[in-house]
Design brief:
This protein has helices at residues 2-45, 50-65, 68-78, 88-114, 117-125, 130-160, 172-182, 186-218. By secondary structure, the chain is an all-alpha fold.
């Protein structure tokens, strides 16, 4: 029987490859957008303006304090009631971007605040504006602190992408659920799903470990 199931799994394998490609697309687009959003929000999180800091703080608190599946449901099912119609792919990317941006924001803000205040004072005394100080002095130094956890967060976001299967996106996880209906050997099916997720996450894990060791040596 197991041999029969394995043969069936081999026949269905192209479905897993399509699901893997969908997961890669959603993850790649979301990671880029979440990084941009997170960096902007992270810089604003360290702003001297209390109102801006509070607004970003509320955003981060809500994102980090609510389950991602709830966020996905709001984007896909509630937004249309407000006149914002999104297909499953767009809803998945938007939800992943907003969620990822909240976590990246905290990483970036932490990296910026870790830079010695003397660097700010030295740059200001040199005649640099606040924006120039961030761009040429603070951010380059903060990247040593930001990069390792940022890459690690990318791995978590890729794994969290499995949640978007609940709104009908034919990603890797949904390919597994579709297959297990035909092949009632859940361990075999979802072991394959896990292996494919690992295949796209492991290079980032290695990169995160490398950056962490490199920053310790440079530090």
């Amino acid at each position: 029987m197991m041999q029969f199931y394995f043969h069936e799994l081999v026949q269905i394998f192209p479905l897993f490859l399509r699901g893997l490609w969908m997961t890669v697309q959603i993850s790649f687009i979301s990671l880029i957008l979440a990084t941009i959003l997170g960096f902007v929000a992270g810089v604003l999180r360290t702003s001297k303006n209390r109102l801006i800091r509070s607004f970003i703080g509320i955003y981060v608190f809500v994102i980090r304090g609510t389950p991602f599946v709830v966020q996905v449901f709001i984007v896909f099912f509630i937004f249309p009631e407000w006149g914002i119609q999104l297909d499953a792919f767009s809803a998945a990317v938007l939800a992943m971007t907003v969620m990822g941006g909240g976590f990246v924001c905290e990483i970036v803000a932490g990296g910026i605040t870790a830079v010695d205040k003397g660097q700010w004072e030295a740059a200001t005394s040199s005649g640099l504006t606040a924006l120039q100080t961030l761009r040429f002095v603070v951010i380059p130094q903060a990247m040593k602190t930001i990069l390792p956890p940022l890459v690690g967060e990318y791995v978590l976001l890729i794994k969290d992408s499995s949640v978007v299967s609940v709104i009908g996106v034919m990603d890797l996880t949904r390919a597994g659920w579709v297959t297990v209906v035909r092949i009632p050997e859940g361990l075999m099916v979802f072991s394959l799903v896990g292996i494919l997720y690992f295949a796209i996450s492991y290079p980032l894990i290695l990169l995160s470990n490398y950056l962490e060791k490199r920053m310790l040596v440079d530090g």
